[in-house]
């Protein structure tokens, strides 16, 4: 038995394994990725979409791989919104990119969706007049750090983002977080998410 398989088996020992965990463990092993059942520390997962007005309940089925100097971590994140009795629970698959040299805090999403919450956020859209396709497709928000965000979103990055299907991209000031839908992803969708992240880091 390979060392990684032994480690994964030890990680999952005495854990109540559900069908999704088994499926993603098989996916990770089949691609020679690392797998961990749960995260104990949520501090590095504090991104706008996951932790603002929400509480992270669990981070599960964590698949890790390296891409050049970057580390990718794909995980199922369970969040709770509202009071205990009436709380809404959401489950979403996300990909975190670590290893960036510098990254300002920002939040990017499909323009039509993010514009709906503009008033409540109190943030202004950061528009790129020379890149109409990008500005028409996405809304980009910052936190009084527009100059840093404009420097980060180079011509290469703006051009690359336009080629993607609608994604949500955010930064906590250190790492990046990508997701495709507000839902759990299948194996094939996770492969698409990983491919998206690989294309993204090449544009940084």
How would you characterize this protein structure?
This protein has an eight-stranded antiparallel sheet. With 204 residues, it is of the alpha+beta class. It has helices spanning 3-12, 19-30, 48-51, 111-114, 118-121, 132-137, 146-152, 155-163, 187-202, and strands at 34-38, 55-67, 70-81, 88-98, 106-110, 138-141, 168-171, 176-179. The protein has a domain at 1-98.
Most strands sheet: 8 strands, antiparallel
The helix-strand sequence is: HHEHEEEEHHHEHHEEH
Class per helix and strand makeup: alpha+beta
Rg, Å, rounded: 18 Å
How many β-strand runs? 8
In order across it, which strands form the biggest sheet? Answer: 1-2-3-4-8-7-5-6
Mean pLDDT: 87
Query: What share of the residues does DSSP label as strand, in percent?
Result: 25-35%
How far apart are the termini?
38 Å
Quick overview of this protein structure:
It contains nine helices and eight strands. By secondary structure, the protein is of the alpha+beta class.
Can you tag this structure with a few keywords?
204 residues; alpha+beta; 28% strand; eight-stranded antiparallel β-sheet
Q: Which secondary structure elements does this structure contain, and how are they paired or packed?
A:
Blueprint: H1 3-12, H2 19-30, E1 34-38, H3 48-51, E2 55-67, E3 70-81, E4 88-98, E5 106-110, H4 111-114, H5 118-121, H6 132-137, E6 138-141, H7 146-152, H8 155-163, E7 168-171, E8 176-179, H9 187-202
Antiparallel strand pairs: 1-2, 2-3, 3-4, 4-8, 5-6, 5-7, 7-8
